[in-house]
Amino acid sequence: MTSRERLLNAVLRKPVDRIPISTYELVPYGGGWPNDDPSYASLMDFIREHTDVMKMWGPRSLGGGLGYFVSATQEANAEHRSWPEGESTHHEVIIHTPKGPLRHRSRTDPHVHTAWAYERFVKNDEDIERVLSVPYVPNTCDASGMSVAVEELGDAGIPLISIGDPVCNVSELFRFEDFMERAFTDRASIERLLDAFFPRVYDWLRQMLEQGVGPLFRICGPEYVTPPYLPPELFRAFVVKYTQPLIELIHQHACYARVHCHGRFGRVMEMIAEMGADATDPVEPPPLGDATLAEVRVPSATASA
Length: 305
Description:
The chain is of the alpha/beta class. The protein has 2 domains: 3-63 and 139-296, TIM Barrel (Alpha-Beta Barrel), CATH 3.20.20.210; 71-123. It has helices at residues 3-11, 41-50, 125-132, 146-153, 166-171, 176-185, 187-210, 232-252, 269-274, 293-296; strands at 53-57, 60-62, 77-85, 88-97, 100-108, 116-119, 140-142, 157-164, 216-220, 256-260, 279-281. The protein is globular. 31% of the residues are buried.
């Protein structure tokens, strides 16, 4: 089997010649640091020869607007600035909305492939109203680079398109502890935000699918609503309600949905299967999580690990 055949058969729960092995975002087909770093060259050669690649890929958006709020509106704009402090670089984004400014601050460090957000856009009730005041204007998706990614991979693997569901977008507006508290004390505001982001995420996904993007989509966000953070009943309200239509849209275009979900996955596993997910990642056994591969792979489950 080629790697492409092996990965697709695994997603479809069909026979494979061996278990497919992927190194996730560490792949020898572009992707920036560290994949293009010379010190990784021998590792990349090994990955290219022995593994099954799922290359992360995403389209461009045209027309400007606010990527933070998945909108091409011109009624709000972003102001960016950065400054050094020691070896770190600090970044500030101020969004000027119709109801006033929102501010986000983060820090990056050299040779570290992440960013630490230490101030989020939403800190109080007024900030929620400012987010909701940003008009939704659909942006234009440019997926013309998809063919290049497919040609580059050949039979060595498949593209993997990562999208955030509404709860991913909404939770990251807050400090995580503030999001959890709001979920219990002000559920109505969280649901107003989810309702506002859902059509934006849905429209963007629809555009990608109509332009032939696929075949495998990784949906991020459900992990923000798993135990021990939030109870399963909120998973149904914040995730299933909004993410299931995304999975259904993906299936309508003969593509596949993989739900990315850390936490105590076993408490919400049946709901992920109910949504129609074709695959999930990761499956974390105790003590980090509460599910083993054997428990996930049961005859009644409709999702595969």
